[in-house]
Amino acid sequence: MAGGKKILIAGAFILLALGMAPLNAIYLKNLWAEKHYQFFPVLLAAVALLLVARWRMNDAEAGEIVEFEHDQADLAPQAGFWSGLRPIVALGTVALGIAIEFAAIWAFPLVTPWGGYFGLLIAGFGAVLYLSDGRRVSLVPAWLLMALILMPPENRDDQLIAYLQQSTAAFTSHLHDFLGVDHIREGVLIEIDSKKLFVEEACSGVQSLFSLLAVAAVLAVWNHRSLVHTLLLFLAAIAGAGGTNVLRTVSIVYGLDRVGIDLLAEPQHSILGVVVFIAAIGWLLCCDAFLLFLLRPIDSVEPQPQGNIWITLWNRLIGGFRWIDAPPVTRRGPVTAVVCGVALAAIAVSSGALAVASTKAVLASQREGIRPLLAPIDEGKVIGKLATLDEESFPPQFEGWTRVRFEPVKRTEGHSLGQHSRTWSYSTPYGLATISVDYPFRGWHDLQLCYQAAGWIPSAIRTASTAGGHGVVDITQFSLQKYTGEAAVVVFAAMNEKLEPVPTREGAGAAQTFIHRIRKAVSATDNTDVVAQFQILLQPARSLTEADLEDLHKHLNLVKSRLLEHLRASEEVTP
Known about the structure:
The longest helix has 33 residues, at 227-259. The radius of gyration is 28 Å and the shape is globular. The chain has 16 helices and eleven strands. The N and C termini lie far apart (65 Å). An eight-stranded antiparallel beta sheet has the order 4-5-6-7-11-10-9-8, sandwiched between helices. The chain has a three-stranded antiparallel beta sheet with strand order 1-2-3, with helices on one face. It is of the alpha+beta class. The protein folds into three domains: 3-137 and 332-365, no CATH class; 155-294, no CATH class; 383-573, no CATH class. 51% of the residues lie in helices and 13% in strands.
């Protein structure tokens, strides 16, 4: 490769990295707030190491992976149609990624870091595809590991975590029955004589499913495992995550009930987590070795096993490690070379423009009081003033409701129910109502998952708008049922630091077109606004009428009005 072309390629891709850096720095900052993704620095280091190792891998090192001892000169394929088309397709993919990055800045009113990271994945895929051309070992599998930290739209991973917690609690309860441990399980709450345990931490941190999937993927790419082998290793990681979460929870409950050891206290809790995670990695290594035993490549006695299509398919797709060909002999015409040169120059120019545009957009989107880099979610400068709410913030007689009690609640930072809650219980003509103000959350919070975790089954979802919300659909109402026959109704809404209503994700909301729906989903995924949620849980003493539900919504609007008055009054007295 000529020196001038090398400089052009290096310059284009360096500018590409600089252009995509601002949005993706914000994305990674937001990602750190999610406990189940806090393994990502290790994953990024592993991807960098794999890319460097594969780049430097010479023929001798690659030959060690292949067990076939044939003359490599006989195996060198000749250039085909794909060989000539590949660089054009690769650079076209890079251009698509740049276009997505620009769209993340300009197409929506808000900068969307999620869209920026998606653009990085596409552009990076094109870049490594281009750089892998003519090389013995492809860089693409190493880059594909980056997709493991792409958050699902609308935070669907939260639903997966809720499912994992429910499954962990169910299996834990069955094991405790077998071990003879007296307990009561309600949703993800396990109660024994000495304590009530909320099964939450077993599905986060280093022992989470996401971490084990990342370990399985890195293990497969490092050892050049085949596609089928990799997929089976992912299944082993899912099973291992479930088993180790159950093991961890059973150990905590059994230790409290039978041995008298509190494994929730530090440093026992952290030590248990590390031990369980090491056990999970050991499980993955054993599964990898067993799969390698079952799915070994076929070493044909023929001088060219590629002549047998069944052997070729087995070795490439199913065999325990991939067949690595010698680098193809590529022959391209001058037209392809000119097209690639022009495309690289265009990528360099557009990447420079992207660097300017993304930097301006990120600087413009910064607000006073935003969380510092790699910091957990805080209460916010406005929402944090809800800490001054007390019993008298809502009157003893509240539009026909009679106050029964008040309770402030403080939980661990980043708790799924919110770190802080203020609850007022009221006796109403149709049952017991609990008003709760919960904060802080990052963007809209799906309250249904919290009630599911407590053993409730949500249904009959409806949406509406609060008074003064300018038509924003921000109220979610749903019914709750338990197997014991208990029933309840919940209405809730949320507001952000600007005291604006936060649109619900249920129903159509304000989205009327396909583009609006995409915008809503993407914006919700990487929404970093500090949000407070206010809700009313009604446990009715009789069947509710439409007039009762209207009264419930009226009181939710009154709750919102009082909260706004409280926050605005706090702003006025703040120096």
